[in-house]
Amino acid sequence: VSFVLDKIGALVTLEGAVEKKGRFLKPQDLGIISEAALVIEGTGLKSKVAWVGQRTELPKKYSKLKKVSARGQMVLPGFVDSHTHLVFAGDRSHEFEMRLAGKSYLEIAQAGGGIINSVKATREMSEKDLFKLSSERVETFLKQGVTTLEIKTGYGLSFESEKKCLKVIDKLKRKTSATIRATFLAAHALPMEFKESGHKAYIQEVAHDWLPKLKNYIDFVDIFLDKGYFAKEDAAILFQAAQSLKIATRIHADELALTGGSETAVSFGSLSADHLLKIGEKEMDMLAKSEVTATLLPTTAFFLNEPYGPARGLLDRGARVALATDFNPGTSPTQDVSLVGSLAALQMKMSIEEILVALTLNGAYALGLQNQKGALLPGYDADFILIEAKSPARLFYEFGRNWFKPKVFCKGKFIA
Ligand code: NIG
Ligand code: FE
Questions:
Q1: Helices H, strands E: what count in the chain?
Q2: pLDDT tens, position by position, 319-344
Q3: Were 180 and a residue from 173, 222, 292, 388 both cysteine, which residue would form a disulfide, CB within 3.0 to 4.6 Å?
Q4: Residue 44 to residues 2, 158, 228, 273, 415, Cα–Cα distance (Å)
Q5: Probe residue for ligand 1, chosen from 119, 331, 332 as the CB with the greatest number of ligand atoms within 8 Å
Q6: Is 368 left (phi over 0), alpha (psi -120 to 50) or beta?
Q7: Alpha carbon of 170 to those of 24, 180, 348: distances in Å?
Q8: Nearest CA to 359 among 134, 351, 381?
C-alpha cells in the first residue's frame, strides 16, 4: 500500500550525510525538513521512499493517496546495528564476578572460560530453542527501532554447530521484520578440538572446507584478529578464501592489543574494521584514507573498563565511523542502542549528528547497504521510526532505560 506520512514535525533525511559519504559531518548534514511529508510506495520488502519534502509542496500525483498523520512527531531512519553476536546460549555472569574480583578478560579466557564457555552452552542447545531465544532478541532490537541488523556466528566453532547458528540466522531473516545479514565468525576462538593441532590447522579447515560448504548462508566473513586469538597470517588465509568466493570481509581489529587488524582490513578492502580500542595514529590515518568503515563499540569499552575507542582521532581525520552494540555475552551484554549513543556523546566526544549517522547511514555502509538503508530519501527502503522529540539529541539524553518507545515502520508495515 502506498501512503503519505503527513504532519511530520521534523523529518531527518540525512541528505548531507549521504552526499558526504558519512564523513566530516556538520549539523546541517542531518538534512532536517520541518512540517514535512513522506511518500511511501510499494509493499512488503519493496516498500520504498518515493518522495520527501515540505507538506505544502506535496506533488499533485500523490494528493489522492491515503494520508497517515504523524501528529507532529519526529521521523528518523531506522537504526542499523552493524555488529552483534546475538546467537548464543548460556550466561557469563560468573565471569563478571571473576572480573570484579580482579581477573582480566584474557586471564579468564586462558583459564578455559570466555568465548569457549558460551560455545559449550550454544552447542548443547537445539536449533529450535536457539531460534526462539534469538528471535526474542531481534524483537528487542526492533522495538528500539533497529530495523537492520548484522548477526555473527562464532559460538559454535564446529562445522555442525556453526551450520546450526547460520541456519538460525537464515530463519531470522525470513521470519522477523528486521533486515538481517549473516557473518561467519568461525575464527572467533580456537575450539577445544584443535588445541593440539593449533590455529593454523583450524583456519585451513575453516577457510577451505567449512566456508565453501556453508557459503550459501553467509553474507560476510569475520575474524577475531587479536592477542591470544588469531594472527595476521590466519586472517590472510581466511580472507583470500573469502575473496575467491566473492564474499566481503569485516574484522575484529585491535580490541585487546594492536595486532595488525586495521592494516589487514585496509589491505583486503574489508567493509569494516571493528573495536579499535588499541589502534595507533598510523592505523587511524590508513583507515581514514580508505573505504573501510571504522566501527566503534562503546558499550564494550564500558563493560571491559577500558579506555574508549579514539572517535575524535578517527572522525577528525575523515574516517567514516559507525557505532554498534557488539551485543554478546562476554564483553557487551546489552542491547541498548540508546546507551551506545549516550556513551559516544559523553565519553567519546561525538556530536549528535556524528552519532546519529554512525547508527544509521554509516552502519549501512559497514554492511554494503548504503544505497538502501540508513537515510530517508527517494529510492531508499522505507525503514523509519517516529518519536516524540524536537531534536534527535533526545534519543541519547535520557540514558540507561530504553526510554524511547518509537513507532517503527519496516518491510511495509508498522511493527511497533
Ligand atoms: O566482540 N572480540 C570478540 N568477540 C566478542 C567477545 C566474545 C565473548 O567474550 O564472548 C567481542 O568483544
Ligand atoms: Fe564483536
A1: 17, 16
A2: 999 999 999 999 999 999 999 999 99
A3: 173
A4: 11, 36, 45, 32, 12
A5: 331
A6: left
A7: 36, 8, 35
A8: 351
* 45 secondary structure, DSSP code: G
pTM: 0.97
Residue 334's SS3 state is: coil
Which residue is it, cell 499533485? 60
Ligand nearest to the CA of 300: 1
At residue 283, the 3 state secondary structure works out as helix
Instruction: Give 74-107 pLDDT, tens digit per residue.
Output: 999 999 999 999 999 999 999 999 999 999 999 9
Q: Which residues line ligand 1 (CB under 6 A)?
A: 85, 114-115, 118, 224, 252, 255, 300, 326, 328-331
Q: What is the pLDDT of residue 400?
A: 75
Return the bridge partners of 33, or none: 11
Cell numbers at residue 381, please? 527502503
36: β partners? 8, 54
| Dihedral of the alpha carbons of 188, 194, 199, 200, in degrees to the nearest 10 | -130
- What residues sit around ligand 2, an ion, with C-beta below 5 angstroms? 326
**What is the rounded distance in angstroms from the CA atom of residue 58 to the CA atom of residue 302?**
46
